[in-house]
Every structure is written in structure tokens, then in C-alpha cells.
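S.,

Sequence below, as promised.
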Amino acid sequence: MNHYELGNHIYNLRVARGLTQRDIAEKLSISDKAISKWENGTSQPTVYNLQKLADIFDITLEELLKVSKENQEKQITKIVITGGILSGKSTCCHEVKDHFEKIGYKVVIVPSMESILEENGFIDFNNYEELLKSRLEFEKTFNNLIQAMDANKILVLYDGASLDIRSMCTKREFTTICNTLSISSEEVRNSYDAVFHLKSIAKWDNTLFDKLNDNNKIDSSLAITIDDKIIDTWIAHANYRMIDCCISIENKAKKLIHEIAKFLNEDERFYIEKKYLIHIPDISYLDKLGGCSKVKMTLTYLNKSSEQCDIKLLLRDEDGKKFYQKIIKGNNKKSTISLSAEEYIDELDNKMLDRNPIVKYRYSFIYHSVYYKIDIFEDKAFSILEVDLLSSHETIQFPSFIEVLKDVSEDPNYKNYNLSKK
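The prediction came back faster than expected:
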């Protein structure tokens, strides 16, 4: 994460002094969103604000900027795996753990405290204030143990997390609880690096849900409502993704692993991307395809972009929610910066005048255990199919509804940068 070490250091100093993000923001006469961005590593304070922070924490500027060599080398990424009832969170967490440990990560799973309570007889535990307070302490204990671990690349998977409790009560109740505990939902949400939501099976097949569900107090209709409340709880996170329902939990786990690999910038190291020119498929068929997600994407190239170095803005419209990012890709490195709507609009002033924005609908799905992405463009008479393989020897079994025209994996004409030419 960009500037993660400094952000984490600021977070620890603030928490140790019992201050909220809002407290710091008021002292600096800036928004608490700015503090959140500093702490999650998406931006850094100005020199002026660094000095003011040092004064607030009663330390020298040198002490504020000093990050130990050990912490500089240690990369800790905190990812929430959340979702509705019968979404496969726990199973998927273990599949993710197995995968990323094979490629060099130390993976820690922070279990669901609510599940632990239920397993020990606390079936109707509805003291939400005590639950949130206990969950935050529970996670803090894990975080302290993780900081002391002898490993440089640590991936922390939260099987559900503190903010899930917001979906159990009304917004007013949760706001009151946060005020009592001197925290905000934004502060809790932004303490994690990314959030992946696994949709409940109730949203795909309510008959199957009713068959598998052993809680007679919750039917498929209520499960869908709960799933929607959890989505509403987390969707404002800058790095939020939804994983649709799949026919099998194995395929759902593969989708999740693929999306986490992309977030960690590990997809280019461990996946071989094949790209094919195809006829535009039947969109109505794709819209009805089980386990197929749809996202509207708008790519806008900025000045100083080239074939060797992409600098672009990405607007993702996912289930009516918009996410804004700036992506810099070149020299086998990729960095992604989350933007606010205002920052995105400001950045548009730097767009390349000889390029058109690329507007496309991306359909993603699993077929025969392989991850497929179909891009359907608003202004092109063709579509592009991308397939991510784990090995060059892997056999591709194209779905019957796809008509492949040719392999364009090595053809620069079909790169987004060149497709955007006016």
C-alpha cells in the first residue's frame, strides 16, 4: 500500500493517545477523510501538517517520520472477507490461505467472534455495543501478535469484521454505539486495506438456500435483506469488491483468489493472461448467466501516458455504486490510488486530448474452473475475451456461447491504450 508504514505509524500514535480521526482533523482544521487517507496509505500529509501532527503527539518531527527498518521491510495487508448467510466465507478464507502461502505469504485468519459466541451457546447475543467493543479488542489482540511475527509478507484475512455488526442493528443504534465508544464507522472501515463481499446463496437460488439453511428463524427473503445490509455497510470502502454466487464453492474461492491477487499486484506474477478477439455475445444471455458479475468501466488516459507507461483514471460502476481510481502501470510495476469524486473530476483536466475515454461493460465468470472476462465496448463492433491461466500448458475450454475470431494476446492494436485513439 502506498505510504503504508507512515500511515500505520500515525494510526498507532493516534490510538495510543485515545484520539479519534475527527479529533485530529479538528486540531488541523481539515476533514477527517484526509486523516483516513493518511492512515490507509493513499496519501501523505504536507510538511506543515507533519509538524502539526508531531506537536499533537508531543514528539519530534524526526520521531514521527522514523519507521524502524523491521517495519519498513514488513508488509502487512489486512483484508476483510465478509458476506451474507451461507456465502462460504470461512471455506473461502482457508482456500485463500492455502493459495497465498504457496506463493510466499504468511497468512493469518482472524476468526469470526460472533461464530465463536454462537458455538458456545450465545445464540441471541444482541448487546451490540458490547459486541463491537469486544470485537475491536479481539482484533487488536490479533494485530499486536501479527506485528510481532517473524515474517515480511503477511496477509491478514478477517472472517467477517467489526463493522459487520452495523448490519445487525439500525443505523441510528450503530451511530449511538460509535459515539459512546468515541469511534466512527468510517474510522473502523478504513482500518482495513480491502473488503471482499461474498454474496449469499439466497441471492442465486432461494430453494437451495432453504435446503442448506439450518436456522429456522431465517428464510431466504430475510437472508437477502441481511446480505444487502452488509453490502451497504462496507460498500463505501475505497477497495471494495463483490464476488457473485457460483455453482460451486470451489469456483467462488477461485474468483476470490483472483481478485485478491489483482489487489496485491500478484496477478501479473502468477497468472498468464490470454486475450482473444470474439464476436459480441448475446448480452441477454450474459445477464442471466449464474455467477456472472457485470461492471461498467470508464478508462480515461492522462497526459504523459504511453504504450510503455499507462497513466489513467478508472471509474467503476458496480451495482449503481461508483468507485474512482488513478492507475499507474509501467516497468512491471502497478500502483492504484483511490480518489474521491471531486479528485476524479479534477484529474480529468489532465486527460489526453488525442484519446477517447474507453467505456465498456465487463462480464466476469468461472467456466470449467477457469476465470473469464468479456469486455463489451460501447463503440466497437467486437468484444475481447481475457482468460487468466496458471500455466502456459493449461487447456482452454471456451464456453459454447463464445465465438473466437483470433488470439490477440501479443497484438498491441488491442491494448486499451491503442483502442482509445481518436
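The chain is about 40% helix and 25% strand.

Coffee later?
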